[in-house]
Each structure stands twice: as C-alpha cells, then as structure tokens.
Amino acid sequence: MTEHFYDQLQQLGGTEPLTDRQRLEALVKPLLSWYRGNARPLPWREEPSPYGVWISEIMLQQTRVEAVKPYYERFMRELPGVKDLAAVPEERLMKLWEGLGYYSRARNLKKAAQVVMEQYGGKLPGDFSLLLKLPGIGSYTAGAIASIAFGIPVPAVDGNVLRVLARLLAYREDIRKPSAKTEMEKLLPGVIPEGDAGAFNQALIEVGAIVCLPGGEPRCAGCPLSSLCLTRERGLWREIPFRSPLKKRKIQELTVCLILRGDEAAVRRRPETGLLAALYELPNVPGRPKEEELLAQLNILPGQVSEMAPLPESRHIFSHVEWHMAGYFIRLKDGAEAGKDCLFVERRRIRDEYALPAAFGAYSRLI
Ligand code: ADE
Fold first, then answer.
1. From 3, 46, 57, 73, the catalytic residue
2. Residue 273 is part of which domain span?
3. 46 annotated active-site
4. How many domains does the chain have?
C-alpha cells in the first residue's frame, strides 16, 4: 500500500503528466512523514520561539549549520531576548559575531530589535508583511519566522529549498535570477498545510541540506520525493538546478602585520563603509612592499624595531574578492610609536573584547 498521491493517481489510470501544482500537492504527505523521522535535532528547533528562529535563520544565511551551532548557543545565552539585543553595545555584538562573516547581518539584527522594541512592545510581529519591513529580513527569513514560530502558511524559499523544488519540477531557468525564487514562492501558497507550515518549510530545507545535495550526487535513494522528482526520472541532477557562473573574484594582495609592543598588540579600525566596515583589523598595507617600505607606510622608524620576521602567507575568500596575504611579525621597542590610526591594546583584551574578522585569523591567532 502506498500513501503517495501520485501513485494513487496512476492507479486510477491517470496517464497525464502532473502539473507543477499537483506535483507539489503530492509531496506534502511523504515529506512531512519523512521529516518526523529524519529531522536533525538542532538547538533552534527545541522550542522554536520567534526570537530564536529569527537569530538562527539570520546566522544560517551563508553559514553552515555546524558552524552556526556554537554561535547560536552563546548568542542566546548572552542576549536571550529582543530587549537585550536592542541594547547590546556594538563592540560586544561584533565580538559575538566574530568569525561568522557578513557582519552587516548582526548590525541589522540590532536595528531590527530596536524597531521591535519601539513599535511592537518587544515582541516580533506574527505577520509576514510586518516582518518583511524589518531591517535585514527578506522574504525567506520573514517566511521562516512566520511559519516556524507562528504556524502561518507562507513559503520560505532559500537556496536549499530552491534546489529541491527546481529538481522536483525539472525547472531549467537560472536559479540565480531573483525570478526563480519568486516563481517558486508563487507556487507554494495553497500547498503549504495549515497547521504544519513550520514543519513543511523545515522539511524542504532539510531535504536540501541532507538529501538533495548541492555539490555531489544527490542521495535519491533516501529521498521522500524521489518518486515525484522529474529530475530523477530524467537523470538530470548534473544539469538541474542551473546556476549561471559567477564573475571571477578580484584578487587583492596585502601585507598584514602583527605588531607587538610589550604585552600589547596593534589593531586599527577599518573605514565605516565597504568590506568589513568599521571592524578592527591588524595593520596592513596593499601589495608586497620591501621591509623598509613597509615600515615607512606604517609610520614606524626602523630604529624602533627590535625584531622583524616574515610570517607564512595566507588567503581568505570573500564573496567578491580574494585576499592573498603575506605576513610580518614586528616587535617594537618599549615606547615606540606606529601610525596614529594604530591602537595598542593589551593582547588579552584583544582576545576577549575585540572582534577581528576571520580573514586575519592566520595572524591574529598569534596574539
Ligand atoms: N538552513 C536555513 N534554515 C535552516 C533551519 N531552520 N534548519 C536547518 N538548516 C537551515
């Protein structure tokens, strides 16, 4: 006996191919029953509060589940509610986000928390359109919060879900185009089950994360949607989903310096706009200057240096640029100065209080 709507249809002698809509309707039951047995236990799934769902969904954008877990737990311990987030000092917020990347996500969280305090008495609104108006919340995140935390039957189409649906329907268009996402979002209302909206959306996310994999061969044998999947039927998993190639990343060379003086190290604040805006960094200069030139650019007099040695090269990949870094260790004599933008801070305080982006990790871990 089978529960699949599709099989039932075939048993009834229906030979017409299913419409997209019928295919989606047919997936609801097998998807939900698979999810009940296969959902990973994740910290934000234990008791999904609107705040916890919001924080986890923002962290999970561009970041893997395993990497997010410890950040999520620490964040929720330290800032357990909207009120705490709205009032957190910027530097502390950056420290809690240190290493997660895309720091504007954290700044938007705080801005949105302030709006929620002012306009909604500290409670996230249980309304898709109102959620969508908050800083940093797009249609995916609004859909995830509305469905998972409030049970509202609205779609939550992220990259995972887009891949699953594109494969299910053998959708050939470029899924990087915003229209791919909006087309899928339009197909889902009416399909999402009332009363199970959160499980439905998370189940699609889960299939995308652990079955319908992006990199290698999808695990169709364990997929609850395999009997409905047009891409599987046609053997097209290498072609679908289609993603147009990205533009090549620009390569920037820089020389990063770990400058120590006594028990202090030098840090400086990055510009207010652009890549890693307003975060702290290790002093660095463009290119590969010779030692003398490097010191000159950092406003360090050679007579004030007691030790100088190269450090290993390192690379960091951002979405649009790659940093190819050379490193220098520079020990200054007591009382020596560096450029006025350099701030000498006790090494222990840098470790505990300053957010240094992961891009500098190869050097900052020596602090
Ligand atoms: N990726 C995005 N949202 C997620 C969620 N709620 N659970 C697991 N992975 C996710």
1. 57
2. 250-364
3. no
4. 2
